[in-house]
Amino acid sequence: MLSKRIFMLMFLLVFLFLVGCNPSTPPIEENQSPIIISTPVSTAKVGTEYIYNVGATDPDEDSLTYSLIVKPSGMTINSTTGIISWKPICGQAGDNPVIVEVSDGALSDTQSFTIKVSSPPAPPVPPVNHAPIITSIPGDTAIVGIEYTYDVEATDPDGDILTYSLTVKPDDMSIDSGTGLISWIPTSLQIGTNDITAKVSDGEKSDTQSFTITANPKTYTITATAKSGGSISPSGDITVNEGTDKTFTITPDSVFYLIDDVLVDENSEGKVSSYTFNNVTGDHTIHASFILMGPVYNQTQNLHYNIIQVAINAANAGDTILVMAGIYPEDVVIPHDKDGLQLIGAGSGVTSIIAPGGRDSRAIALGGNLGLIDGIKVQGFTLVTADTNYAFIALSGTTADGPPYTANLELEDIVVDGGQRGICLNAVQGVTLVDVHVSTIGTFGDGAIEMTGVSDFTFTQGSIVGNYIGIRLQIPPALYYGSNGNLHIHDSSLSDNATAVENQDASTIIDATNNWWGDATGPYHATTNPDGLGNAVSNYVNFGSWNTSP
């Protein structure tokens, strides 16, 4: 067995020697491996075809065959060309390992790589369309015959082109579809409320605006004015609807004025107390003027005067004479034949009679000394006198009729302030003084209200203030005066007088209860109220209960 092995070894050595020493015998060539020389594509997208052309060389120029050893599902390779094809699906997003092999039949080469597959981008979100928005505010009134316009304004967040329309509208109203301008001329048949709905659209979405327009008739202005002395009603700039009527009333301020003229559009219409504009179709003016007929007016006879005494002299018994506010420098006498006469001023604060002075100068005197004078009323004056005369006096003297000389006298809203003497009442039966105020009468010796032969006397709601003697009652003479009696002073202020009430007639008691005496402790009387700190009173005055405040 060993010899056989030695033989074979020797044979092999001889063979190798012979071959190596014989140059004419060609050598045997060794096969070399193919080599992949391309760079793989390492990224892909879902749904997009992936291509990779595997490139390889073979030193022996052998035919090569390509194959995939590791691959994702769906990937293929052309075994001859080496082109890899693949369309990744959604589940293959991410890393996908691949091993490709090239072979010459004996030897091979491989290439390992990873394909990163990305998901496809999300499909684009379709843009959201936003509705346009109307931003303007419409006017809510229109006038018949005059064009109404309203420019509807709107914004669109997307910048879309907008179209305007009217879905609700009155007849003849229109809108510009491109600009939104509404135009309308109302007619008289459309007076009142009119409903409108405007719409703006971007072709897909829209906005609406509903509103109401009140159509009013066309109007004109009538300017009404008046001079002093009266008024016109209505006055000022008056708005009047076209085609309607308007009446104006002209009224004097008082009985002392009359209508002088009424001018309509500068043309005189005379002394009319009213004027009507019919079927108004334009602007107009109306102006009223007045004339003062006289500051003294006999209301009963409808007569005007400039002087109080002239009016009294011309008056009949029972007439009412009105006196305009002002100052009258007169000494007024009311004769005995003017029974029932009423002399009424505009008020004591605005109407004054000032006696000019002299021995017989009194602001107002009643002529009862020549005969009984009955039912006289004097109201609404301030009375001023000069020298030592009385501001108001009911005259006394011999009369065939006998006492009294004056009956049923009324004084109301009378003021006497200053002077030597105030009011003197002689032989008067029935006298009422309401809201009469007498003050600062001097020290001549008489009372601010001096009385003799007076009965049925009432003084109420007045004041006797700041006088030397407030109210004094004297004993009447034996003839022509009558007696004193039934005298009342109530609800008045008697303060700051040296003596508030002095009664010289022991036969009658003055009832002076419920008055203010200047102090809450009441009037001073040495016997009946020695602690009173108010004005002093004489005997024969019943001050009883008194007011503790003015």
Structure write-up:
This protein has 550 residues and is mainly beta. It folds into four domains: 35-118, Immunoglobulins (Immunoglobulin-like); 133-216, Immunoglobulins (Immunoglobulin-like, Sandwich), CATH 2.60.40; 219-292; 296-542. Helices cover 5% and strands 45% of the residues. The strands form nine sheets. It has a 22-stranded mixed sheet that branches. Strands 21-19-26-23-24 form a five-stranded mixed sheet, with no helix packed on it. A hairpin with a 2-residue loop joins strand 23 (257-264) and strand 24. The protein is elongated. The chain starts with a helix and ends in an 8-residue tail after the last strand.
Structural topology:
Blueprint: H1 2-20, E1 35-36, E2 43-45, E3 50-53, E4 56-57, E5 65-70, E6 76-77, E7 83-86, E8 94-103, E9 108-118, E10 133-134, E11 141-143, E12 148-151, E13 154-155, E14 163-168, E15 174-175, E16 181-184, E17 192-201, E18 206-216, E19 219-226, E20 230-233, E21 236-241, E22 246-252, E23 257-264, E24 267-268, E25 274-277, E26 284-292, E27 296-298, E28 303-305, H2 308-314, E29 320-323, E30 326-328, E31 332-334, E32 342-345, E33 351-354, E34 364-366, E35 373-374, E36 377-384, E37 392-394, E38 406-417, E39 423-439, E40 449-460, E41 463-465, E42 469-474, E43 485-490, E44 493-495, E45 499-503, E46 510-511, E47 536-537, E48 541-542
